[in-house]
Amino acid sequence: MHLDITQPHLLEDYLKSKNWLNPQEQVLILEKPGEGNMNCTLRVRTHDRTLIVKQSRPYVEKYPQIAAPANRAIMEGRFYEKIQPFASINELMPQLIGMDTQMNIIVLEDLGTAADYTFLYQPGQGLTPADTEALAHYLSMLHRLTWQETIDGDFANREMRALNHEHIFKFPLMETNGFDLDTVSNGLQMISMGYKVDTKLKQKVHELGMVYLSDGRCLVHGDFYPGSWLKTANGVKIIDPEFCFYGCPEFDLGVMIAHLMMAKQTEDTIRRVYQAYGEVKNPQLVDQFTGVEIMRRLIGLAQLPLSLSLLDKEELLETAYDLLVNS
Ligand SMILES: Nc1ncnc2c1ncn2[C@@H]1O[C@H](COP(=O)(O)OP(=O)(O)OP(=O)(O)O)[C@@H](O)[C@H]1O
Ligand SMILES: [Mg+2]
């Protein structure tokens, strides 16, 4: 089964063969529910309801020439299974309706035609105190309730971590990575060179990369940024845990705070995150992951729709450097 937006009848037959649609239900139309790069994600409309169907392929959907771990949708499905017993996490995510490990397909509850939170990167946009608390509380619950003595082998997710490791900890500081940052912000290439030749920084980022790759005791979302948060009629919801793994909780928190900083959120908002999250085992590690996430988003390949001047970026890079090297 190859998910294809132009083939609603094929998908109807497939969903019925799996009992995920009733025998009399008809697929009216397939739609693209939102922006996504990695996978083929579709909204299925029938007379009575809508569903989200997501398939991962051995390549990145938007750039088929780039290989990617084929079973990442199944990792995502396993995440939803794992959190099933925990209402406080579960209720903030779509329900898993079905999973086909052979076809790398998952079927999810549709959370509605909600926008994600990347609007936060626009000037003057703020995360409300209620949303800030809900997101931090979600992370806190995820990390605490999934804590266990032994690492869950199902969640090693090594290939996805290797992919992310390359993008976060290696590519951004490569001197000759072939990516001309002046095409993003004129002058950024030169600014980035100062960091790319800094051996102390590179050593720190290398060590931090090893922490990221090591196994830990709790389930980590792995991609906890505004693109994974949906603003629905029932409040903020969290999607897309395909990069999940059993690792250190500081990673999710560091990434979240990095994005709040790049979205110019107030210090009050960041304080509120820490308050709602509760005890952090290693705050220094959170700072370091914040630093590395800022750096990779500003001088790495996975750019964001940020509205930052060159001076803003220069200042943020300095802050990131301090968090990494001097914290
Ligand atoms: N359960 C859902 N309910 C409503 N909309 C959804 C749901 N899942 C995904 N979407 C929409 O589809 C978009 C793409 O989904 P998702 O982020 O899971 O795909 P992806 O291919 O993994 O994306 P990325 O390349 O950003 O990792 C989301 O931004 C959102 O707009
Ligand atoms: Mg994704």
TrEMBL record:
Gene Ontology molecular function: ATP binding; kinase activity
The keyword Protein transport is assigned to this record: no
Keyword tRNA processing applies: no
Keywords: ATP-binding, Kinase, Nucleotide-binding, Transferase
Domain Aminoglycoside phosphotransferase: 34-278
Transmembrane segments: none
Family according to the record: Belongs to the methylthioribose kinase family.
PANTHER family registered for this protein in UniProt: METHYLTHIORIBOSE KINASE
Protein's UniProt name: Aminoglycoside phosphotransferase
Species of origin: Runella slithyformis (strain ATCC 29530 / DSM 19594 / LMG 11500 / NCIMB 11436 / LSU 4)
